[in-house]
Amino acid sequence: MAGRNEDTLDHLSLLGNQNTKYKFEYAPEILEPIDNLHTRDYFVKFNCPEFTSLCPQTGQPDFATIYLSFIPDKTLVESKSLKLYLFSFRNHGDFHEDVVNIIMNDLIKLMDPRYIEVWGKFTPRGGLSIDPYTNYGKPGTKYEEMASYRMMNHDLNPETITNR
């Protein structure tokens, strides 16, 4: 395999587009799939350290780092579309727990991954930080078992938090 060519990328509307429009309201339609050219298991990890959304009650901004990890099946998410999708939460009002589940559900719908997890590390407001974690493994596969195991152990060795 020598790599991708224009024919395999012709359906992408955002990558390389110099006239990018930034949506300020939740926009899952922005997400664009690309073919996974590899059949082996491997993790893809995205970290978004500048994620923002709004509190649905007060309208105050919530800041977080969103960690996305997945084992793709036949489809990946194109990274520029993912950036614009995450940016679209900028004026979206939802609780932290809802945000991570919405992101995961949209990515499952787009990619149908073997396994996926989303972890939001929200900065404190009022002296309290909230770090919701969710995951999913394809039912009836080893990935479903993996999801169960990782859910039970996801915070077994918590990281040292120095930035909040």
TrEMBL record:
Pathway participation: tRNA modification; tRNA-queuosine biosynthesis
Xref: InterPro entries: GTP-CH-I_C/QueF, NADPH_dep_7-cyano-7-deazaG_red, QueF, QueF_type1
Subcellular locations according to the entry: Cytoplasm
Enzyme nomenclature, EC number: 1.7.1.13
Chief subcellular location: cytoplasm
Cellular component terms per the entry's GO annotation: cytoplasm
Signal peptide (UniProt feature, chain positions): none
Active site per database record: C55 (thioimide intermediate), D62 (proton donor)
Keyword NADP: yes
GO molecular function: preQ1 synthase activity
Positions annotated to bind substrate: V77, E78, S79, H96, E97
GO annotation, biological process: tRNA queuosine(34) biosynthetic process
Parts forming coiled coils: none
EC main group: oxidoreductase
Annotated keywords: Cytoplasm, NADP, Oxidoreductase, Queuosine biosynthesis
Catalytic reaction annotation: 7-aminomethyl-7-carbaguanine + 2 NADP(+) = 7-cyano-7-carbaguanine + 2 NADPH + 3 H(+)
Pfam families reported for this sequence: QueF
Similarity annotation: Belongs to the GTP cyclohydrolase I family. QueF type 1 subfamily.
HAMAP family listed in its UniProt record: QueF_type1
Function noted in UniProt: Catalyzes the NADPH-dependent reduction of 7-cyano-7-deazaguanine (preQ0) to 7-aminomethyl-7-deazaguanine (preQ1).
Protein name, as recorded: NADPH-dependent 7-cyano-7-deazaguanine reductase
Source species of the chain: Planococcus halocryophilus
